[in-house]
């Protein structure tokens, strides 16, 4: 798999990379090529510079420095000698090559009317190696199930860059579409129809429209399509039960996600964030999270080579948010009344039992709610009085 | 008897040289025309199809007749070979090596090499501009070539016959 990627590299770089020990090649995550600066690789959570004799070491001074010619040849082969065909990608700062490897580009931007029109003098390349880790979501998936609806919950996967969001997303899509739920209760569910909007061609790595990664049997991929439009196209045309999209961030993405969420389609998405509080700081995501759209948040973190994930339900996410807003007296009443109906579809164990209940019951139950929602008393003690006051109004 | 056979041979050879020279004059504008068609095709591939260059050149090669098509196909396959060559290098090498097999001259060659140096290296609009510029230059060359053809095609043919006749007369 790496062989095809190495073929794209200019000859000197290719020889150096091919000469790396197999153990390093097996864990390779990034290759960073910068003109006249040392060649760097990232592997297994570490980084190293490659010396001209083909060995890897920590000292950057002895690293091999790719020349101007190397970089030009690399850019040409990455774009298949056709910059004109990848203008849109250049504007966004990356191209994706066969195999789903994304290559980030840095250079000098050309502006037009204040927005980036083009990238020129490209001298920085970050080759991110895409890997299918089949089964990497098997531990996580049982925690994301919505047992009453026999499918997955609306899920947002969060992590800083390079923690394996896309890899996890890919495997989730595979597991859902092949019915690989890894849960005794879900054994009879079968797979779900999955629609993937693969804006960067990273999830599926389509070649002539056919995914090169295993995404299960019931998967439709809209390749290289902008998320906002693609989500709607999928919902309209392919009748998916679960839609999958990578890296939500722009307001129009959030808008499209909201549409899909309301269209009765389950959504699995990823976003850049280091913790739950970040979600509420990013305007597009905050709007969605505020409405309690997501039933589960998965936070990825990596220690050494292992990827750890922790799952939060929407109630816990709101708790995190309230921790930030709790200090402000005006924040609680605005938050509180909306809380009660919002948790109903979230399939949190206590809430799930209540969901089918009649609506008058909701008002009656509003008071004892806060202690259930916030399991750790020291933190919840702050917003509690405000909360119950708000609940009383409703 | 021997003299007569020799005279006939000289006459024949001279005529042939004249005809070959004339055919060169006739062939040049035709090949420039083919080249223009090729560039027109390339323009469409870049402008509308946004076809990657190797494939675009391959298609161009299929659309035009022999000596030129081989050159375009050669560039396309070199780009696909994955040896890390740049378009500029392999374009220059191919057209410099293959030029003698065509009937074209220096002007067309210049225009083509200049195009090769920019091909694939910029945005769509810019590429189209370069292709059109090359086409304009080629059109100018084509008119010049046609004028030359009218002037010199017949001239070189008759010159061949007459030259041979002169040699024969001198020899007799």
From TrEMBL, chain A:
Q: Which UniProt keywords apply?
A: ATP-binding, Nucleotide-binding
AAA+ ATPase domain residues? 151-300
Gene3D superfamilies recorded for this chain?
P-loop containing nucleotide triphosphate hydrolases
Q: Where do the segments described as Disordered lie?
A: 320-394
Which residues lie in Pro residues bias regions?
368-380
Which Gene Ontology molecular function entries are recorded, alphabetically?
ATP binding
Pfam families reported in the protein's UniProt record: Spore_III_AA (PF19568)
PANTHER family in the record: KINASE-RELATED, P-LOOP CONTAINING NUCLEOSIDE TRIPHOSPHATE HYDROLASES SUPERFAMILY PROTEIN
What is the name listed in the Swiss-Prot or TrEMBL entry for this protein?
Stage III sporulation protein AA
Q: Which organism is it from?
A: Cohnella lubricantis
Write the lineage as a comma-separated list.
Bacteria, Bacillati, Bacillota, Bacilli, Bacillales
TrEMBL record, chain B:
By its UniProt entry, which Pfam families does this protein fall under?
A: Spore_III_AB
Superkingdom, natural source: Bacteria
Protein's name according to its UniProt entry: Stage III sporulation protein AB
The gene is spoIIIAB
């Amino acid at each position: 798999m790496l062989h095809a990627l190495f073929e794209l590299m200019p000859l000197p770089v290719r020889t150096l990379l091919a000469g790396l020990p197999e153990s390093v090649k097996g864990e390779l995550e990034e290759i960073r090529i910068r003109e006249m600066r040392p060649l760097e690789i990232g592997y297994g959570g570490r980084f190293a510079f490659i010396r001209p004799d083909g060995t890897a070491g920590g000292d950057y001074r002895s690293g091999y420095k790719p020349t101007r010619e190397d970089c030009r040849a690399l850019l040409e082969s990455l774009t298949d000698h056709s910059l004109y065909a990848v203008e849109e990608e250049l504007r966004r700062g990356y191209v994706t090559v066969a195999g789903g490897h994304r290559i980030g580009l840095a250079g000098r931007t050309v502006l037009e009317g204040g927005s980036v029109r083009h990238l020129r003098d490209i001298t920085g390349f970050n080759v991110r190696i895409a890997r299918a880790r089949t089964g990497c979501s098997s531990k996580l998936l049982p925690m994301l199930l919505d047992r009453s609806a026999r499918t997955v919950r609306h899920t947002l996967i969060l992590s800083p860059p390079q923690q394996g969001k896309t890899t996890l997303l890919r495997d989730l899509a595979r597991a859902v579409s092949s019915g690989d739920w890894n849960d005794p209760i879900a054994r009879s569910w079968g797979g779900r129809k999955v629609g993937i909007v693969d804006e960067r061609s990273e999830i599926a790595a389509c070649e002539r429209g056919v995914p090169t990664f295993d995404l299960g049997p019931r998967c439709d991929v809209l390749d290289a399509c902008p998320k906002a439009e693609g989500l709607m196209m999928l919902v309209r045309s392919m009748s998916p039960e679960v839609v999958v999209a990578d890296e939500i961030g722009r307001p129009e993405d959030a808008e499209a996600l909201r549409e899909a969420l309301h269209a009765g389609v389950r959504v699995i998405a990823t976003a850049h964030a280091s913790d739950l509080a970040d979600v509420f700081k990013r305007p597009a995501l905050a709007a969605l999270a505020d409405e309690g759209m997501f039933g589960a948040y998965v936070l990825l973190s990596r220690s050494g080579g292992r990827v750890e994930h922790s799952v939060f339900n929407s109630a816990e996410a709101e708790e995190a948010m309230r921790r930030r807003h709790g200090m402000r007296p005006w924040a609680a009443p605005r938050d509180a009344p909306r809380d009660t109906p919002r948790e109903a579809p979230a399939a949190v164990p206590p809430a799930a039992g209540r969901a089918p209940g009649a609506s008058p019951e909701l008002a009656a139950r509003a008071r004892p709610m806060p202690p259930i929602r916030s399991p750790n008393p020291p933190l919840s003690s702050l917003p509690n009085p405000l909360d119950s006051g708000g609940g009383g109004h409703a | 008897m021997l003299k007569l056979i020799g005279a006939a041979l000289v006459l024949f050879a001279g005529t042939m040289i004249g005809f070959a020279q004339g055919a060169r004059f006739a062939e040049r504008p035709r090949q420039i025309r083919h080249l223009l068609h090729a560039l027109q095709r390339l323009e469409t591939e870049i402008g509308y199809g946004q076809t990657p260059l190797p494939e675009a050149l391959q298609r161009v090669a299929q659309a035009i007749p022999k000596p030129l098509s081989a050159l375009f196909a050669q560039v396309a396959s070199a780009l696909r070979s994955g040896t890390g060559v740049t378009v500029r290098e392999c374009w220059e090498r191919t057209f410099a090596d293959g030029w003698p097999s065509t009937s074209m001259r220096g002007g067309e060659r210049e225009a083509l090499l200049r195009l090769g140096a920019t091909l694939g290296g910029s945005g769509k609009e810019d590429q189209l501009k370069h292709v059109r510029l090359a086409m304009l230059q080629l059109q100018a060359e084509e008119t010049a070539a046609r004028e030359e053809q009218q002037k010199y095609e017949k001239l070189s043919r008759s010159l061949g016959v007459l030259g041979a006749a002169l040699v024969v007369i001198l020899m007799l």
